[in-house]
Amino acid sequence: MKGAERKDWIVAVGAEHRRGPFKVGDRVQVTDERRRVHTLTLKEGGEFHTHVGVLFHDQLIGQPEGSVVENTEGVRYQALRPLLKDFVLSMPRGATVVYPKDAGQIVTMGDIYPGARVVEAGVGSGALTISLLRAVGDTGMVHSFERREEFADIARGNIAAMFGEVPPSFRLSLGDFQERVVEEHEPGSVDRVVLDMLSPWECIDAVATVLAPGGVWVNYVATVTQLSRVIEAIREDGRFTEPEAFESMVRGWHVEGLAVRPDHRMVAHTGFLMTVRRLADGAVGIPGARRVKEVNFPAEDVSAWTADHDPEAWTHEGLGERGLSAKKLRRSARDAVAMGRAAGAELPDAGSGAEVTKSE
Questions:
Q1: Terminus-to-terminus CA distance in the chain, angstroms?
Q2: Which of 57, 82, 107 finishes a domain?
Q3: Which Pfam families match (predicted)?
Q4: Cα–Cα distance, 246 to 98 (Å, whole number)
Q5: What is the DSSP letter of 207?
Q6: Would you say 263 and 253 are in contact if contact means Cβ atoms under 8 Å apart?
């Protein structure tokens, strides 16, 4: 039977938000004749101003996706809904987002499947969370833990804007992951764990407690120091398989007739990914094939690698990353909440400290 004739399709959360003519509250990506891209949230009577004319939102509302419209000065714009990769790079943010190339690797290498029970820590701006929610579907669960209230507000607003509502498969809790996850999940009840945090080695015991035998743990870290430390800590723990570490790089190509060459710019290193699987209780893992050799590391290197005593060592600033002002975080949180509400979602005010529970 042809798909168009079926009457029993189950409409997934967010699907209707991605189909049909443009409507009020939709995020729309307009591209001009010089390939410059702008993202709009459609409003009745809204206007998009540039130095070469005005494009009225009412020209797009009710039009099919892929329409081409002209502004008051005759400049043509191609209008499409943003793809996921476009959305996450243009949405309000507090923390640096996990890039689409890495999110795709996490979903694939972490084997995130429909119906999976996934726990995530370090929700940030919600970019990776959106990919996880799409992968688990309406029958799965993504439970995200976040320490910072501002990041939680931003993520919730962005997720609502993407799906048109906060998906029922999503839960959000404020607090320390290693403390709250063991309170809210039974031992061995979680299928996958995804951590994007500064010091994931602090969470080994919590992950080993809630992760089911055979379950996958994925870590995303920014530096080789973090990568080395978490892998050695996991090896020493003994409750997991031999870790695998990698990074992904994406290079575009310029194709114009017979002029075919790599682009001059590429999305290269953004972070390191590490995957490992939970062994059964009492099982002794098989170590990787490594040569055992004596190495004398300089004392200053060992001190830097084991800098637990220094509270500034494992912060974004301590790792050389640019910090975020409280003012910028509050503004991003308000923007994300407003964008989610424009898409039709009912969201609490930014700064309310609200969590997303099962009942929601």
A1: 36
A2: 82
A3: GCD14, TrmI-like_N
A4: 15
A5: H
A6: yes
Residue 43 belongs to what domain range? 3-82
Please tell me the predicted confidence (pLDDT) of residue 1.
Answer: 44
- Cα gap 247→242, rounded to integer Å: 17
- 229-259 burial: b if 16+ Cβ within 10 Å, else e: bbbebbbeeebbbebebeebeeeeeeeeeee
Number of domains in the chain: 2
Q: How do residues 233-279 score in pLDDT, each as one tens digit?
A: 999 999 999 999 999 999 999 999 999 999 999 888 999 999 999 99
Largest CA distance in the chain: 73
Cα atoms in the Cβ-side hemisphere of radius 13 Å centred on 24: 9
Residue predicted with more confidence, 14 or 154: 154
Percent of the chain clearing pLDDT 90 (strictly above): 64
* Cα separation values, 150 from 256, 331, 333, Å: 45, 9, 6
Whole-angstrom distance, CA of residue 269 vs CA of residue 291? 28
Where b means 16+ CB within 10 Å and e means fewer, 189-208 reads: ebbbbbbbbbbbbbbbebbb
pLDDT of amino acid 321: 55
CATH number of residue 226's parent domain:
3.40.50.150
* 293 within a domain of the structure (yes/no): yes
pLDDT tens by residue, 75-130: 999 999 999 999 998 888 887 889 999 999 999 999 999 999 999 998 989 999 99
Residues 175 and 128 in one domain: yes
Residue 349: predicted pLDDT: 76
Q: Is the pLDDT of residue 191 over 90?
A: yes
Q: Which residues sit opposite 245 in a β-bridge?
A: 274
Task: Report whether 20 contacts 63 (CB < 8 A).
Answer: no
Element (H, E) at 52: none
Q: Please tell me the distance from the alpha carbon of residue 149 to that of residue 155, in angstroms, as a whole number.
A: 10
Structure tokens at 357: 């529970």
Residue type, 200: P
pTM of the model: 0.83
Q: What is the DSSP track for 102-163?
A: HHHHHHHHTT--TT-EEEEE--TTSHHHHHHHHHH-TTSEEEEEES-HHHHHHHHHHHHHHH
* Strands across the sheet containing 272-277: 170-174, 141-146, 117-121, 190-195, 211-221, 272-277, 244-246
